[in-house]
Amino acid sequence: MVICFLAACRAQSQNQASPADKALENKRSLSFRPASSDLAQMSLRAAEATLPGPPSSITLENLGRDDQKNRPVTVSHSFAKGDIPRCPQAVIDGKAVETQCDVKTRWPDKSVRHTLITFFADIPNGGKTKVAFQDQAPPPATPLTKEQMLGFMNGAWGAAFKVSADGEEAGPAVLRDARQILEAWDGKETGTGVRFWLKGPLVTQAIVEDKASSRFDFGWSNAQPFARVGSDVHANTLEFDLTGDTRKSAAEWQLPGLMYSANQILEICDYRNGRLRICPQGRSKTEQLPSRIRPGEIIAPATGWIPAKEEKYKSLHPAFVLTFYKGWAGVKVEYILENTYAQRKQTQVYHVQTLRNQDKTPVGPDRWLVHWPKSRWRYTAWSGQDPGPLHIDHNFPYLVYARALPSYDLTLHPSSEAIRGEYDFFRQSDRGDPMGRSVWLEAFEAPGARGDIAFIPRWYTRYLYSADPRMWEAFVGTAAVSGHVPIHARDAMANKQFCPHSCEQSPTVQGRVVSVEARPSVNHNDAQGEDKMPAVGPSPLGGWSPDIAHLPDFAFVPYLLTGDYYFLEELHFWASVIVTSGNPSSDCDYCRHGDWGMFGGEIRGRAWGLRTLGFAVLMSPDGTPEKSYFTDKFNNHIAIDEGFFDLKQGSFYEPCPEGPYNPWKTTRWCWGRNTMSVPQLTAQSNPLYSYERVSMPPEGFLWREQDFPTNPPSPTLPKPWAVPVYSVSSEWQQNFHLLVTGALLDMGLTQIAEIHARTATRLLQQLKSPDYNPYLVGAYRTPAFACRPELDPKQNKYICKPNGRFTNWKDIKNGFKEEPDVPKGNFLWRSITAFYDTHLHNPDGGYPYAARAAASFLPGMTYEGLNGKEAWDWIAEKGCIHEELRNNPAYAFVPRSENAYGLGSQAPAQSRPSGKENSRKRQ
Question: Can you give the pTM of this predicted structure?
C-alpha cells in the first residue's frame, strides 16, 4: 500500500524524460557560498548573538533504593562551539575521572559538537552527582574483539527472540540469538554486518545484525483473503460492516476465529448480512488498549501462517545492540525487530518472547503482536547485573546555549500541575509498548490543536523544561512510537549505490534507507519500472495515516538526549520519507525532480519537512554517507527556493543554461525559478515573499460572485470589501516556515540565511507597516491573489478572474471584510483590535503563538525603516497569555540576544508582560 503524501499522490507525469536525461552529468553536490545580501548578514549576526552561557555540566540522580557504586554511565551531550577542542573528560567532585568519548559531530572549527561520553561514578541512594567536563586528548578507539564479546562474563550473557505464528502449518517457534549472529560474523566491521557505535577503553557498543544476507531473517506467508472495515470500530463496538467490494472474502473465513486489524487481534464470532460480530471479551488479544479502527483498514485472519519458503516472505529482521562496560558483570541489550525491507512488505502476526542470559530467561515482551510493514520496535534490558535506575538532567539551559536546541525562553517553568497532567496523559495510554501509539495521534491529518505539531512536540519540551524523572518515563515511552509509524523503508539491493552523486565514496544501498539516487523513480517506497517494490502480502498502515503537512518530529530530541543508534536511524528514516515523497518527475511545480529530492505541497508541509531534513543534516555523524546524502538534498531544497524567489545573492545561485528551458537539464536555481514558482506566476512580482503557489478557494470573509450587483452589471465593489480577492493563503503556515528557517539558522545551518532573511521581512512588515493591522497575523486565511472583475456577457454579471499576487499590505488589509460575519475564532476582519481569546488560550496551535515564535528571529533586522526589535516587542506582549506559554512552552522562543542562559529552568519568570490584558473578552 502506498502512503499518500500530499501532491505525491497526484498522477505521475506521462512524459517523463529518459533515465539518461534525468540528471546533469557533473558531480552534483552544490558549492556553498555565504549569503552576501545585507538582510542575510543581519540574520546571521542576530543568530550569532549570545549572552554568556552556563557551565556544561550534567546531573546524575539515583532513582533506586541502593547506592550505585562505580556505576557505568554513558551520556549523550552537545557542546557549544569552542568549549571542548578535542574530547570531553568528566570531572566529579573536582576530580577528573577516566573518560571515553565517541565524538559524532564537530563544529567547523573542529571543536566537539555532539558526542557520547562514558565514565564510572558513585551515586548515593536517593542522591545526585554533578558532573562537569574539561578537555582531554582522545583515548584510543579500540573496541572489544569478536572473541572478547562472546567471552564477556565468561560467556554467561545472552539475548534472543523467540517468535511463533498461529496455524497448523506454521511450524515451530523461530529462535534468533545475538550470540549466534556474533559467532557467524567474520570479525570485520562493515556497514551491513556487525559494527560499532561506541569503541574505546571503557565501553564497546556493537550493533549485531546481518543486512548483507537474509540468513537470520524470517517470516511467514498467508494466502487467506482479506477484507476492509466499512464502519468505525471503537473500543466498545460489538458489530461492524465490511466494505461491499470485500464482503465476499469473509465467506471464506473459518469463524469463530481470530482476525487482525490495525494494531489489534479480534476474536470474531460470526458474520451475518455483511457485518462481523466481535465475541464477548474479544478485544484485543494483542493486549493493546482497544482503540479506533477506521473505515478502509484491512481485516484478515490472524491464523493459517506458513513458514517463508522464499526470501521475499522473510519480512522480519532481528538486530541487537550490545553494550559491554569494562569490568561490569552485565551486558545492556537492545532487542530490535524490524519489518522494514521495502521488497518484503507484508503484515506479520506473531507471538514474541524476548530472552536473556545463557539460560534464555524470559524478560520483557511476551505477547501477540500485529506487526505491519514499514515499522519496527525495540525493547531494552540487562543480561546480568543491572546497575539500577538513573536519571540524567541534561542541562537544558546549556543545550540551548550550545545551539543543540533553538533559543527557548529559559525563564519559564511549567507548573507541577502541567507536568503531572502530561504524565497522567501518558500513563493512561499504552505507554509506547511494542506497536503501541502512546499519546500520538495516528490520524496525522486530523484538524485542531495538536500537542505533537510544533517545532518540537509539547511532551518533549515539557520534559526538557522540567527535567522531571516521571516525565523521563513519558519521554522514553512516547519516543518509542517513532519506530511504530509505517514509514520505514530499507532497501535490500546490493547492486546499486546509496549516494553516487552526493558522496565521495558511496556504499551500496543494501540495508540503508531507500535512496532517490539509487531509485530515481521511487515515490516513498513505491515506484514504477525497475524501481518498483511491490508488496508480497496485505500491507495495511496499522491505523496510521502519515502526512507531511501534519508531520510531528518523533526522533530528534530522543537522539539528542540518548545518542542511541536506534534513534539516529529513526532520523534517517523520517528524512528519507521527506526526500522520496514527491512525484519523481521534473515538469510540475509539485514534483521532486528525480534524485534532487525536492518536496513541495502545502507551506506547512514544506516547513515540517525542512525541519526534519535539517535535523538529519545536523545530527548525522560526520563523514558518513547519510550526512553527505541528506546535506545534498537539504542544499538542493534551498537552491530551488532561492530560484523560486529570484534570489541571486543567496548560497546557491546557478544561472540558467543557455538555450530553450529544459526542466530535466537545468540548474536547481533555474528549476526553482521556472517550474517550482508555477510557470504562469514566474513573471509576476513577489515583493512580499509569499510561498503561496496555488489558488485556494475563497473563504467566508472574501469576495463572492453574488456580492457583485448584477442588474445592471457593475464593477463597483460594495462594502464590506474594498479590494476584491481571488484566493487566499494561510499566514500561520508561512510563520511555521519562518520559525523553521530561523531555528535551523540559529542551530548552525547558515546556508539558509538568505531564504530566512527574505521571508522574515514578510512578518516584519505585517507587524510594523503603517498600512497593515498587526493583529491580522492571527488570521486563519489571508488574501493572497487579487481578483479582476470581468463581465461575463452570457451570465450578464461580473465574475472573478485571477490578477496576480498582492504586492502591498494596504491592498491585503483591504481584502479583509470590514466587519465580522462569521463565527469568532475562525476568521478576522480588517479593523480587529485584539487577538481572539480562543487563540490566546491555545498555545498548542493558536496562530498568535506561531507568529510570536517566528518573530523571535526579527531582532537585529531592519527593513525599509521597519525595526525587527520593535516588532518582536509588540508580538511578545500581545501574542500570548504568559501563564499558558509557561505551562506549554512548545512555542516559547525568544531572541538569542535576550536569553539569560545562566538562570536555568528553575529561575523566576522574567519581567515580561503577564498577558492579562489579553485575557479579557473580545469583541
Answer: 0.93
